[in-house]
Write a structure and sequence with these properties.
The structure is a homodimer. Chain A has 17 helices and 29 strands. The first copy, chain A, is of the alpha/beta class. In chain A, strands 1, 2, 3, 4, 5, 14, 15, 16 and 17 form a nine-stranded mixed sheet that branches. A nine-stranded mixed sheet of chain A has the order 20-19-18-22-21-24-23-25-26. In chain A, strands 6-7-8-9-10 form a five-stranded parallel sheet. In chain A, β8, α5 and β9 form a beta-alpha-beta unit. The first copy, chain A, is elongated. Chains A and B meet through α1, β2, β3, α7 and α8 of A and α1, β2, β3, α7 and α8 of B.
């Protein structure tokens, strides 16, 4: 993390007065002043990593070591992403920086709750350490819901004591999204205790309030939670802004009417644009926060309002008064672009240093070597073929079925009558997939089984990137393929594999905590491409196939899901048996 | 200071959902939402001191212990004053609360630099202790310039070490106004060291940048200072907002054009209204921040913009996210008024409790007993008559004269040829006043002498309320009267006295640190009235007579001033002799 000290402020002050030369003078820009809603021609002087001054007349131009002609480009502050999970892109912080810095993103506030579910506090420490000395300022949130519920076995739990520790870290600027909103409303359970600790310490508390409205929304906010980044309708957007929440719009939420109505109400910096989860191949193909910014503007958001929503607004949300605007004394995080309507980062300056140009990084990034502990998190032997069997008595049984949907990651709960053969359910003849979730953190040795309709038609997949506890999910039509896919993932130390007839069709290696690669974004994107194509080959068609599989294990995502403890009736929040009585 | 905990958030959340009754329901108000620029009819529920929820439909109304019909009044958040000095009103925090709470002011951020000049850290502790359990939330700033310069002897010095301590106090939310802007620009002197310490600790740093512009202003901000409350023209106001400063407009700065242009640029909550210094009799007669608010609106400021400038904007400036808007989870600091254009606080609720109605406090205030140490700060014997004599040799001398002005607290430096009689300057025959400043903190025993034209025609005054070091200023036409006025002030433990021909014409008792009364605002205002009238009787006419005398001793106020170390040439920042050579 960057640190400002007296020397820097002294240097910037001396350069502002012309007493000492500036380090860099960026001349002839159209400066986007996000504080005053103005675009004014001028020159920007930087010194010791800070903005020394902004000058609007030529005769005020200062002596400088270096001069760059902005050539009438727009100068905007470095982008700030106020809500995301680095692990969603399946990469570590350095690779993430390489992916987003050339797009103008220079500050992120990340919630490391995925890696925390595997490694606990040491996973969060790893994220902080991996982010050191990057041309990307990484702030973290203390994950509030690890694990998401008590209906699964994660690698670690984070309770009030851990939260107290985390909130004392320099890198931590908030409590991460309080997903367990039921715990907040009823004030029962671990999330309520965690929230109480954060409230006591006066922390900024991030929310996750899908569809909450009226008294429930007021209660959620009154309890101390003050932002929301989940999908909202225009009405829900207005309600959140009126109630003093910071509204964080992500790609799936963007719609012209939502933008229009939210913009009309958000004169107080309470409107932000965020990314949340970006798949590595999407990052390569469409971009990151820059893509959200372009999309919002294309949908009618005023460009300056939109730029505020990715700069000063998220900076203010987290009390980061040292950035978010091009003004004296703030970090010289500057992006030059030819167009506001079609934003592209031509030049990217981090703390006054040119770090990317025309979409390419121009500085080397430090290497980060994760600790050995982070590489050995799949702590089970590969499950043998005979583990993919559902013993049953009699001639047939009524079983609960997870019905997948094509355009949603939510599932439906169904029941079917299935034949029993040789003392086990004959799921193979019924065109169903068997799913098994193996606790893989070396804690419980538990395994949960389910039956899934609407997934693969053939072969098998295995993955340790399985929200939120990231146990080993194995899903398939053939016990032999399932065992082989699982073996590949276990032996790789984590990842995703698709197998058919003994052949590995596609795979992603994620050896860090079983969810993160050590490679670059384009490399991971390419691996992920093989896996995506394999899924198609295996007959799985879905608008978001990776995520649909990855949240099959998420017990806060409706309607019937599977953890290592068994099938979860999400609506009721309980474990239910696979085979129904009677 | 108020403290929120889990129980309060739980209670508010339960009331929002209707699970438990609210404590208070204020129905039928026109709610001024300072976050969204809207006025919407609705009802406000409070519980455990917090806003539980705001409901805009009647069927959402909640069960409540108590109901108050708002009768279509406007509901606005409790006023927040982001820059003031309590000591300027010559009273302690409880009396101050009694004066401002009925006017709707419920939060203040005070810089206690006056008392700090007398008592150092224990004076600041006294201010914090005196403010406990009031229906007014008092936050403090760590005074940055104690004393203002090295050209005087104050009762205490505050350096970087003290600042480090102060910034760790719960009550301290910022570094107080960095008045010594020359020290900031040159990075030399105590103020530069103090600033460096505050920068290192990431503190919010308050400014005082009279007339700074261009590179100097950029340098001042680049050095870490991010607000200004001094007088500004419309151009200077725009420059400050563009450079990311929080602009704090006080009464003397308010002008239609300044308001119009500042409002047009300040969509980012960087525009505040503040009071700075309010004399006790002005407070009684015209009001406090409510008066500034009314004046701004009368001069054309949009009422909602103006209300933002006294609520959410100053709250955000100091990171006080728990107030500034009527929204769930925030303190239930609510003011009801019949009119926005002519704001009057009909009902004032502090943390959900009715504390004032129709301009009258309706709750008792706690007593505060200052420590004995604070009552014995005039640590010199009364100066005898023979101290008011200026020894000189020869038959005449050329002396420096302080020429007072009628409409400004600035003075002019003049010289005059004066006769010498019996080994002393014969100032009495020249219609001049003799001025003497006695160090009174028991530290140096120093005394500085000056000659003043344009002050009293008769008699004498003495005062320990003399910025910023608050030494004993004695000024007059007659040594006997001067000695008598000084004796009264010394024996009273501090205050102001006006004497003529042996008779005490008017006086103000300020026994706490020699600058603060223990009485109520109306009582102090009445005492001050006797002193004001006495000044008129003694022939001193000035638009701001008390302040003009009170800053005769302030070595950062142009042009020639007097401290216990002698005459100060303010422009050059040096001590100069009374009698000129040659």
């Amino acid at each position: 993390m960057l640190r400002k000290g007296r020397a820097q402020h002294q240097g910037a002050a001396a350069a502002a007065r012309g007493v000492e030369p500036a380090d860099l003078l960026v001349t002839n820009v159209r400066l986007v002043n996000v504080l005053t809603y103005e675009v004014i021609p001028g020159h920007i002087a930087t010194r010791q990593g800070l903005i020394a001054g902004v000058f609007h007349t030529d005769d005020a131009a200062l002596p400088s070591q270096e001069v760059l002609n902005g050539a009438q480009r727009f100068a905007i502050p470095g982008l700030v992403d106020g809500h995301l999970h680095i692990e969603s892109s399946m990469i570590g912080a350095p690779a993430f920086a390489a992916g987003v810095v050339p797009r103008g993103v220079l500050t992120i506030v990340a919630d490391p709750h995925e890696i925390a579910n595997v490694l606990g506090l040491s996973g969060i420490r790893l994220m902080a350490d991996a982010a050191k000395d990057l041309p990307l300022d990484v702030f973290l949130q203390a994950p509030s819901c690890v694990p998401a519920t008590d209906l699964e076995t994660s690698g670690a739990e984070i309770g009030p004591q851990e939260i107290r520790k985390l909130l004392g870290w320099d890198e931590i600027v908030a409590l991460g999204e309080v997903m367990d909103f039921n715990a907040v409303l009823t004030q029962k359970g671990r999330a309520a205790e965690v929230l109480a600790e954060a409230v006591k310490r006066g922390a900024i508390i991030e929310g996750h309030a899908p569809n909450l409205t009226g008294g429930d929304l007021a209660a959620y906010i009154a309890a101390g939670v003050t932002s929301d980044h989940t999908f909202v309708t225009p009405e829900l957007a207005e309600e959140r802004l009126r109630a003093g929440m910071t509204l964080q719009l992500q790609l799936k939420t963007l719609a012209p009417e939502t933008i229009r109505r939210a913009s009309a109400l958000a004169k107080s910096l309470n409107l932000c644009l965020v990314t949340d989860d970006v798949m590595p191949d999407d990052l390569v193909r469409t971009g990151h926060l820059d893509h959200v910014l372009r999309t919002a503007i294309r949908m009618g958001m005023d460009p300056i309002e939109a730029i505020r929503a990715v700069t000063i607004a998220p900076a203010m949300r987290f009390g980061l008064t040292d950035r978010g605007a091009i003004a004296p004394g703030r970090w010289a995080h500057i992006v030059l672009t030819k167009s506001l309507e079609d934003f592209r980062a031509d030049y990217v300056f981090h703390a006054g240093r040119l770090v990317a140009k025309d979409g390419e990084l121009v500085v080397p990034l430090p290497k980060y070597e994760p600790p050995e502990e982070a590489r050995s998190t799949v702590r089970i032997p590969p499950p043998a073929t005979d583990r993919f069997r559902l013993p049953a008595r009699g001639r047939s049984v009524t079983a609960r079925i997870i019905q997948m949907r094509r355009e949603s990651t939510y599932t439906e709960a169904r029941t079917e009558r299935l034949p029993v053969k040789d003392g086990a359910i004959d799921w193979e003849s019924s065109n169903l997939c068997l799913a098994a979730v193996f606790e893989r953190h070396g804690r419980a040795g538990t395994v949960g089984y389910g039956l899934v309709r609407g997934a693969l038609r053939d072969g098998a997949v295995a993955m340790t990137w399985a929200h939120d506890s990231h146990n080993l999910l194995v899903l398939g039509r053939s016990p032999a393929d399932m065992a082989q896919a699982a073996r590949w993932v276990v032996e790789t130390g984590g990842g995703m594999a698709a197998v058919r007839g003994g052949e590995l069709l596609g795979s992603v290696r994620l050896p860090i905590a079983g969810i993160v690669s050590e490679r670059s974004v384009p490399e991971v994107a390419e691996e992920l491409g093989t896996f995506r194509r394999a899924l198609t080959t295996l007959g799985f068609t879905h608008t978001s196939p990776i995520m649909a599989l990855g949240v099959l294990t998420l017990p806060v995502s409706p309607e019937l899901k599977l953890t290592d403890l068994g099938l979860v009736d999400v609506t009721r929040g309980v474990i239910v048996p696979l085979i129904m009585e009677g």
